[in-house]
From TrEMBL:
<dbReference type="InterPro" id="IPR036188">
    <property type="entry name" value="FAD/NAD-bd_sf"/>
</dbReference>
<protein>
    <submittedName>
        <fullName>Cation diffusion facilitator CzcD-associated flavoprotein CzcO</fullName>
    </submittedName>
</protein>
<dbReference type="Pfam" id="PF13738">
    <property type="entry name" value="Pyr_redox_3"/>
</dbReference>
<dbReference type="InterPro" id="IPR051209">
    <property type="entry name" value="FAD-bind_Monooxygenase_sf"/>
</dbReference>
Length: 490
């Protein structure tokens, strides 16, 4: 179905989510003449993760010129690593400049999507009514439903308590006793942002992360002007950043290799230069291999933990009590506020809404033994249904925007094939199984399986269904072009 056509109020494409992937999908669909289309977004603005995560210190750990759409460059990024407000503003500007805002239905949450076999379309239920669409693209991602640790007594705490992904800006933390649970990417950013403001900060650490220097800095005005005046310089900077990160994967970042040892040496050097106290260094040294969990970047995390008003607690939490956190050794940390920096429910995020495919089969049932999708995009039994940033398409070494753009191109090709007189396009089960088996073989030798850690990358069966086990170039070769022989066209 082409732009401007409308068959009885049926959309050609419904996109779920207005973050990076949803915006990219809509732009490329319009460029290809695919329409009519609409975007539904549960929030009140564009930005996705970068609209919702507004905790103090929120920023990207991928360089700004690489963490942006290749076809929507920005010459005047303010810093080497952009902070949350600037990234949200960038996405808002991209949506506005490409005329997407009239297509977005804000404050609209997907509750159920069911395939109508007779009419070959999706019946999408939202909290604001039904939408009919020939194809559905899920651009919601997996990083938008907060995960809380399994600690008893959380609701008994008398003080303010919230997740970093749902920061309560009405709570004044100045001078307060604040506890932070978690030591992942958000904790490494929020700890330095709060340490100078609160009365006392206690960080509850279960496992320390590997941390490398970030070397963040403002981008000089003269360089911004050069990027605006000569776009080729901006393109070369983006290419330089891409290859600097990509080389790590090509040399073996995704498995135990010489790169693993080199990364550990760099991180240990950063820790040694930042922390003089040997006992504290030992507490902050990970017991697993570099890369097994997400490697973090920070210049101010270690200094923040050495402030006189900061405590690193590495004991076992027994429970949360009304006055604070009780440890297994009987110690009670009295707190005024409690912050959970404990990441997201990735699998649950994909299955929050019910998706029902051919023959009444639910996506939750198809994924009962673990998430899987052909190229991380399509699932057998779910015609005309596409997932962006789906299973095994996350990255541990480079910009996720590169993966989004590869997937968007794949989906556009599928939609074009669908528009050539076909009712449906569906990946063949055998093709999906071949792809999944290839992933399993690669994962068996990966750093995430052999690195000696348990991370959010792994599902309940201990399988990594989150990350891509190779380079961006390898994924581009695999997914950029559609092999129609792997699909069934009706």
């Amino acid at each position: 179905m082409t732009e401007g056509q409308n068959s009885g109020g049926v959309l050609a494409v419904l996109i779920v989510g207005a973050g990076f992937s949803g915006i990219a999908m809509a732009i490329r669909c319009r460029e290809a003449g695919i329409g009519p289309l609409a975007i539904i977004e549960k929030g009140d603005g564009v930005g996705g993760t970068w609209r919702e995560n507004t905790y103090p210190g929120a920023a990207c750990d991928v360089p700004s010129h690489l963490y942006s759409l290749s076809f929507a460059p920005k010459a005047d990024w303010s810093r080497m690593y952009a902070r949350q407000p600037e990234i949200e503003g960038y996405l808002r500007d991209v949506a506005r400049s490409h005329g997407l805002l009239p297509l977005i239905r804000f404050g609209t949450t997907l509750t159920r999507a069911a395939w109508d076999e007779d009419r070959a379309l999706w019946r999408v239920q939202t909290d604001r009514g039904e939408i009919l669409a020939r194809a559905v693209v899920s651009a919601a991602g997996g990083l938008h439903h907060p995960a809380f640790p399994d600690i008893p007594g959380r609701e008994s705490f008398r003080g303010a308590h919230f997740h970093t992904a749902a920061w309560d800006h009405t709570v004044d933390l100045a001078g307060k006793r604040v506890g932070i649970v978690g030591t992942g990417a958000s904790a490494v950013q929020v700890v330095p942002a709060l340490a100078g403001e609160v009365g006392h900060l206690t960080l509850f650490q279960r496992t320390p992360p590997w941390i490398l220097p970030k070397n963040d800095h403002p981008i000089p005005e003269a360089r911004k002007a050069r990027y605006a005046r000569r776009p080729i310089l901006r393109w070369l900077e983006r290419a330089r950043l891409f290859w600097r990160l990509e080389v790590s994967a090509l040399l073996g970042f995704t498995r135990v290799s010489k790169v693993t040892a080199q990364g550990e040496a760099m991180a240990r050097s950063h820790l040694r230069k930042s922390v003089a106290d040997r006992a504290l260094r030992e507490k902050l040294t990970p017991p697993y291999r570099f890369g097994c969990k997400r490697v973090l970047l920070s210049d101010d995390y270690y200094p923040a933990l050495q402030r006189p008003n900061a405590t690193l607690e590495t004991g076992t939490i027994a429970r949360i009590v009304p006055e604070g956190i009780a440890m297994a050794d009987g110690t009670v940390h009295r707190l005024d506020a409690l912050v959970f920096a404990t990441g997201f429910d990735v699998v649950g995020g994909f299955l929050r809404a019910e998706v029902v495919g051919r023959g009444g089969r639910r996506l939750a049932d198809a994924w009962a033994d673990g998430m899987q999708a052909y190229q991380g995009i399509t699932v057998a039994g779910f015609p005309n249904y596409f997932i962006l940033l789906g299973p095994n398409t996350g990255l541990g070494h480079n910009s996720i925007i590169a993966m989004i753009e590869i997937q968007v191109r794949h989906v556009v090709e599928c939609l074009r094939a669908l528009g050539r007189g076909h009712r449906s396009i569906e990946v063949r089960g055998a093709a999906q199984e071949r792809f999944v088996e290839r992933i399993r073989r690669s994962m068996a030798k990966s750093i995430w399986q052999a690195g000696g850690c348990r991370s959010w990358y792994l599902d309940r069966q201990g399988r990594n269904t989150t990350l891509w086990p190779g380079s961006v170039l390898a994924y581009r070769r695999s997914a950029r072009r559609v092999r129609l022989s792997d699909y069934r066209l009706e």
